[in-house]
Amino acid sequence: YGIPNMRVVIAGRNTLNWSHANWLGREREVLDFPLQPFDDAEMLQYIHKELYLDIDSQSEYEQQLKQLYMRTEGRPILLGLAVDVLNNRVLTLKELVEVPHHAFEAYLVSLINKLDQPLNWVVLLMAHVYHRFNLPLLRWILQNTALRELADEIDEAELLRILPRLTFVRQPSSSDSGDFVLHDEMRRLVTKYCWSLQDPHGDI
Fold first, then answer.
1. Are 168 and 77 in contact (CB under 8 A)?
2. What is the pLDDT of residues 106-135, one digit of tens each?
3. Distance CA 65, CA 34 (A)
4. Do the Cβ atoms of 118 and 129 come closer than 8 Å?
5. Which of 1, 107, 116, 155 has its CA 20 to 30 A from that of 138?
6. 3-state secondary structure string, the chain?
7. Is residue 190 within 8 Å of residue 182, measured between CB atoms?
């Protein structure tokens, strides 16, 4: 914004709206770099760091990881969610890679509904809160919707402990306020694939 030594990096899947005041007349100031998905080696490095599984057969495990790479196409958001699903024991790796490629994205994202309650509902609610999400806001939502019975089930200290462990949940490193935000791409996927299963009639 006129400061000669300031640069900003923005990562996202959405095309910039050039008619927005932030970007109007700044087309020549923006450098656009497409980011490639993980390659095989990057996926393995990520999986070995984040995934906690007991392995019976190394050769079978390696074959299953190849199948997982094919199904996620190396997309970090899907690989991260697959790690969450496996670490939370929603499915086994064998069960996950048996899902057909054409149905994989929808099926994988819908498994968020099978996370322990109320964690699953908290993720769904976060998909509709764009900037920040915290416990006071959660309490307000639960008290003013058909979800009020969930309020008694929530252990707030436990929720604050486990929510940041999900790969698609972000928390400001400089904030002690308990604010969280859902990854932009996951917000779109949750809205597309999860709400219709939890709220088929649109009542909530």
1. yes
2. 999 999 999 988 888 889 888 887 667 888
3. 25
4. no
5. 107
6. CCCCCCCCCCCCCCCCCCCCCCCCCCHHHCCCCCCCCCCHHHHHHHHHHHCCCCCCCHHHHHHHHHHHHHHHCCCHHHHHHHHHHHHCCCCCHHHHHCCCHHHHHHHHHHHHHHCCCCHHHHHHHHCCCCCCECHHHHHHHHHCCCCHHHHHHCCHHHHHHHHHHCCCEECCCCCCCCCEEECHHHHHHHHHHCHHHHCCCCCC
7. yes
